[in-house]
Amino acid sequence: MTPAKRKKQTCPPLPAGCSPARWAAYTVLSSVLAGEELDAPEAIRHWSVVLGLSDADRRLCSAIVLNVLRNLLTLDYQIRQFTRAKASSISPSVRNLLLMIAAQRHFFDRVPVYAAVYDAVEIAKALRLPAVAVRFINAVGRRLASQEKLIYPPASNLAYHLSIRWSLPRWFVQILLGTYGESATAQLVATINDEPRAAVRVNTLRTTPQQLAEQWAASGIHAHASEYVHEALVLDSARDLAEALAHGTFREGFFYVQDEASQVVSHALDPRPGELILDLCAAPGGKATHLAELSRGLATIHATDRDSNRLAKLEENLVRLQTSAVEVKPFEDIERLAQRKAQCYDAVLVDAPCSALGTVRRHPEVRWRVSPPILPGLAATQRSLLSLAARLVRPGGRLVYATCSPLPQENHEVIETFLKSSKGFILDPPRQLSILAPSQENAIFSSWPHHPHLDGFCIAVLRRQAD
Ligand SMILES: C[S@@+](CC[C@H](N)C(=O)[O-])C[C@H]1O[C@@H](n2cnc3c(N)ncnc32)[C@H](O)[C@@H]1O
Prior knowledge:
Blueprint: H1 3-8, H2 20-33, H3 40-50, H4 55-70, H5 72-81, H6 92-107, H7 113-126, H8 131-145, H9 158-166, H10 170-189, E1 198-202, H11 209-218, E2 223-225, E3 232-235, H12 238-245, H13 248-251, E4 255-257, H14 260-269, E5 276-279, H15 286-294, E6 300-303, H16 308-321, E7 326-328, H17 331-339, E8 345-351, H18 366-369, H19 375-390, E9 393-403, H20 412-421, E10 425-427, E11 437-438, E12 445-446, E13 458-464
Parallel strand pairs: 5-6, 5-8, 6-7, 8-9
Antiparallel strand pairs: 1-3, 1-4, 2-3, 9-13, 10-13, 11-12, 12-13
Helix pairs in contact: 2-3, 2-4, 2-6, 3-4, 4-6, 5-6, 6-7, 6-8, 7-8, 9-10, 14-15, 19-20
The structure holds S-adenosylmethionine (SAM).
């Protein structure tokens, strides 16, 4: 849901005696699982403000929503143990309330689970669900509340077992098994529901990692240096990150929230002072501003994006970070340049729209939004962006393709098709990518499965051979 649509939505009144945190969690969860909300953390922030949640309630709401989204298949599997009804015959409202009970039973230490059952029943009544549904929630909810431990299907069917155990769509597990093999996949999926690392990129045009860490420490915010990217700091906890975002150093533009694997993309492009660089999918500007910083503010970065609303967000970030080396260009102007085969840029970045499955730790809902039928359409967009970009790269220049997806359909297959159809480009392994490991057969790099605790990025550097 867009913020504008959300504004129009009113929230039904809080059921008497029900915890505001659980009511908010139910509201957010229902809209995320119905596909009305695309960004769960953003929806949690929004509803926490609308419902006036205290900090403690916001944390409980967030924990319930994220735990349900991260463990959806595991929790559904538990619900199926206690009901003979087919999953498809359980209404979304009933299912969501049961999922919330099961999550609080198994993933929370200090929540009294019978309060979770009580609130689920009160919410069901407030929603005016039929009496039979309210009784069903009460009965199944009580059984879930007293379940000793989680159960899973046997590992003899590995894809099914891993899918239920780590709550990932089975098709996704099958692709991971086919791409990385059993052992690396098992290692990767076992960390996929962990809390994400809270990393930021320090704006090195304004301060240094050490100075920023010292400023934060003086305000009780704890961070340490990244072991992967020298300009990254890793906050000790999500609470430290929240405090950093409320700190004056954020308004002053001293940092940008960005996963360490994502930060490696701009290093792969290796921007140099004096170069003219294009970021073709630039909004909201994380990599464009990083490119400016890596060139010490001495390259000219043209930033564009097809989505003008997102370009407005990029402009906001340029103002906050005080980045003057980035010039925003209308997408149509860049298309016109491409029609003329302008070949005018030293380097072009295509940080392509993708399934974003490499960010499931940060956006647990992504796994429920993506399905195999949408992949060919995404790959077609990725191929067309690459061929547009290729017309703009000067002889000898670089074309960097990146996605936050681990799927070969969005990476290797797109790049191989591009290389076959665009004469004059070769894969050129980048030098400075400490995080990334090359795939076995070629020079395409990825952060998964080698660093399963980071976002899953894939990067290829292509070079147009000089005439
Ligand atoms: C992964 S995001 C880019 C993130 C950005 N590079 C950053 O670091 O902040 C992909 C971007 O591609 C844009 N996009 C989607 N479809 C596009 C298209 N057909 N042509 C150009 N941009 C597109 C989206 O609007 C989105 O901003």
